[in-house]
Amino acid sequence: MKPGLWEYLLKRLLLAAFTLFLILLVSYVLLRFAPGDPVKSSMIGSGGAGATGLSVDKPELTENEVLKKKLNFDKPVIVGFWLWLKDVVCHGDFGTSASFDKGRPVTELILERLPVTLRLNLCAIFLIYLFAIPIGLFSGVFPEGKFDKITTAVLFFLFSLPVLWVALSLQALVCKGGFFPVFPLKGLEPSATEGLSTWAIARETAMHYILPVFCMTYAGFAGLSRFTRSAMIDCLHQEYIRTARAKGVPEIDIVLSHAFRNTLVIMVTLLAGLLPGLISGSLLIEYIFAIPGMGELSMQALSSRDIPLIMALFSFSGFLTLAGMLISDILYVFVDPRISFRSRI
User: Which residue of 75, 118, 239, 272 could cross-link 79, Cys pair, CB 3.0 to 4.6 Å?
Assistant: First the structure.
């Protein structure tokens, strides 16, 4: 146990809670004051107020007014936010959707879509680290070599390609209905599995993952590999590396045991952006490939101005962002012995 860990955690958790509170307050105020009527938008997006599953208890109230009352939109903004926050903190209730599936609970909608997005993004993150780190290490050990020049040109060419253009081009070229119909057009699961063996089902599932995962990873190769390359070059020119070489330490030990350990600081820094990327990173890809995940849910919530669902998504994304930053700060202490928790309190 590192000294000062609990004091540091308490300080950071209090700061994170206050930051998340401000994020949610500003988000709620902006959503309430945005042009247009969010209740009408939600009713239109759901095919009418009847789709919200609300019953009109008082005949003199219109369906629009009933929905406003249920969502606390008939109250001042601060009061509405306080009532929403009280339900979240005290009961874990983010409310019911104003436009999805007859007023289903927002938490239920998110938990239904979350596993799909997690599977997709975890595959992408794993592949990015699996390929980008070895490429960056080799390029850093042999800078300006043939391998370094070729990988730099290829990776930066890929990095310059817009994700939207790549995804649509792949659909037109290699998906069903295109010039070379090799891959399925949409979804992450085979449409029919009856009569297929286990290996055939696994193959069909893998074919559904290849294009979405590729679209989510190709740009990430350039960023992480270049960061790793730059860190390796800096480390290999440090005095302690020259001293290790003078003592006759094998080059492989210098690279892996000394230089590579210092590049871990870069990887820990990038970790802070991985957790929120589980939600936002796949938004466009899920929409293009019709994948029923968090990205598609976010697009539909924004288009229908479903404030309870949008606030739940903002809460989840804000929590993941702050959690990623906290995990990164904690890992810094374990990766770099020069940093201590007491010095950061």
Answer: 75
User: Could you report the per-residue pLDDT of 84-101, keeping only the tens digit for each?
Assistant: 899 888 888 888 887 766
Q: Structural domain tally of the chain?
A: 1
Give the residue numbers spanning the domain of 276: 110-293
Q: What is the pTM of this model?
A: 0.77
Q: Report d(CA 63, CA 52) in Å as an integer.
A: 10
Q: Which CB contacts under 8 angstroms, 24+ apart, belong to 174-179?
A: 174/211, 175/211
* Assigned domain for 114 exists: yes
**pLDDT tens column, 284-295:** 888 888 888 887
Neighbours of 62 (CB within 10 A): 12
The contacts of residue 220 (CB under 8 Å, 6+ apart) are 124, 128, 132
CATH number at residue 219: 1.10.3720
Helix (H), strand (E) at residue 244: helix 239-246
Q: Is residue 304 part of a domain?
A: no
Residue 201, domain member (yes or no): yes
Residues found in the chain: 345
Give residue-wise pLDDT tens across range 17-57: 999 999 999 988 988 887 766 666 555 445 544 444 444 45
